[in-house]
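Worked example (supplementary).
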Amino acid sequence: MKNLTLLILGSVLFFSCNSTKKEAPKNNEEELVMYEFSEMALLMEEMYKANEDLKNKIVNKEAIGDFSDKFLDIHSAVLTNPKDRDASFEIFSKAFLENQKAIYSASPDDVKDQFNLMVNSCVACHKTTCTGPIPRIKKLLIK
Ligand code: HEC
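After joint prediction of all chains, the assembly is encoded as:
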């Protein structure tokens, strides 16, 4: 019974995390409904974009700049489902932030591995809360 509850809960979370998939809106009304992002979903999209840029800089051996305080908003941004912010969420956020910060102080030899560690800490949290975007997040990994 407990397993069944978890399964149902899991699929609800799975679908809510998939519900913001972008599709071409047919009219304005639909656009309003389909683009209702939570603060956290918006932040996640920003983090994705920032790390895509960072990946390109690392691959091209360009200067990567500094850690952005924007990432710290993960501690406060409002979630689609506020109950997702539990003790485990906080632990995963901290681990992620530490890995993100460490990229900027890594040596040139280590920066790629540190970047991939950060991506894996995005994935680690997603395995517990929101599995939908995992394949997309894994595309950030530097081969
Ligand atoms: C501490 C847990 C956690 C960490 C770390 C985390 N995420 Fe998320 N992510 C979530 C949750 C929860 C959601 C759902 C947010 C919502 O619906 O409010 C989400 C949503 C997303 C989405 C979907 C946003 C949308 O369009 O609806 C993407 C993409 C994403 N995260 C990418 C990332 C990337 C890239 C990283 C690392 C740079 C990352 N996440 C780190 C928990 C996390």
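Two points are worth noting when inspecting this output. Residues 6-15, 19-25 have pLDDT under 50 and may be disordered. The chain has six helices and no strands.
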